[in-house]
Amino acid sequence: MIVNIPTPQALDDVALRLYFSAWSSLIRIRQDFDEVYVPGEDPRPTKGQWGEEWSEYIQQYQPELQAVCSVIQQSNELALKARICAVSPYLLLLNSDPKFSTVGRDIDFSELRTLDAVDLPAAVNSLCAKALSDEYVQAYNEIRSLRNKFAHLGHAGQSFQPEELIALLVRQYVELWNGRPWLKDRVSFASRTGPAFFHDGKYSSAVSEVIDELPLIFAAITKSAFKTLFGISKTTRRYLCHSCIYEATTRFYDVNLEKSKTAFLKDNVTLHCLMCDEDYEIRRQDCRVDDCKGNVISESEYSGGDVCHTCGQDQRDSPEDS
C-alpha cells in the first residue's frame, strides 16, 4: 500500500515557511544596507543619496537574489500541490505511470513522481473549485522559467531587484492565501525558523523581529496591495497594540513606538490589530500627555485599561497627576 500520503495542510505549511523565508531574506538585504548607509529624507535607496552604492550592492547580491527566486517558485509549487491534494492526494500522481510489483510491499508516496511544475496551474484550474487568475499563471510561468535557468545554468540571464521580488510575493499571497492575516502569519512563521531556537521572550522574540521590520514592510507594499493584503487603506491611521508591544519588548530590544503601530479603529469602541489579529476595547478620550494628540484610550483587560494607543502613556501615571 501507499504510505506517508501528504496532507494539504502539511504542503501548505511548508509553502508558507518557504514564502516567509524568501520574504525575510529580501528584508534582510535592505536592513544590512541601511545599517551602513543610513537613509536620508527619501528612504528609497534608489532615490536617496546612496543610489550608486545601492546599485553596486544589489549587483553583488545577484546570486542570493536568484536563490530567493528559486525559493519563491518552490513555495508556489507546493501551495498549488496543496490545493490539488485537498481534492485528493492521488491526483498529484496523474501522468506518473508508476511501476507496481506483484510482491506486496509498502510504497512511500515521496518515492512516486508527482505532477510536473509546468502542469500545476492547469491541474488546479481543472480539478479545484477556485481557478487561478491569468495574472498569477503568467507570473508563475515567468518565475518558473527563471528558476529553471538558474538551476541548470547557474544564472537566470537577468538582474533581480528586491522590490520586484517583494511585489511578486505580495501578489502570490493575495492569490494563494487571501483572507489569512498576513502579519500574524509573518510572526507565526518567524517563530518557527532556525534562529527562533534562541527566542526566549527575555532577550529576543519573533514579535520583536517582525516589529523591527515594520517600517520596511509597510514601505515595500504599494497602496493597492496594502488594501488587498490588510483590508484597510495604507493611509488609515494606525495605533499601538499594547499586547504586541509587550511581546516585542526584550532586554536587547526597545520598541520604537512611533514606528510600531499595527492596530486600527474597527469601530468607535474597538481596535483591531493586524499583527495579533485580536480586537481590543477602547474609549475615545483625549490623552492627558501634553504633546500627544491621541484620543484612543485602552479599555482592555490586557493592559489594565487607561493606556493611550498613540503614545503608550498610562493615563494614571501621566504628568498631569504629579
UniProtKB/TrEMBL annotation:
The protein's name in its UniProt record: Uncharacterized protein
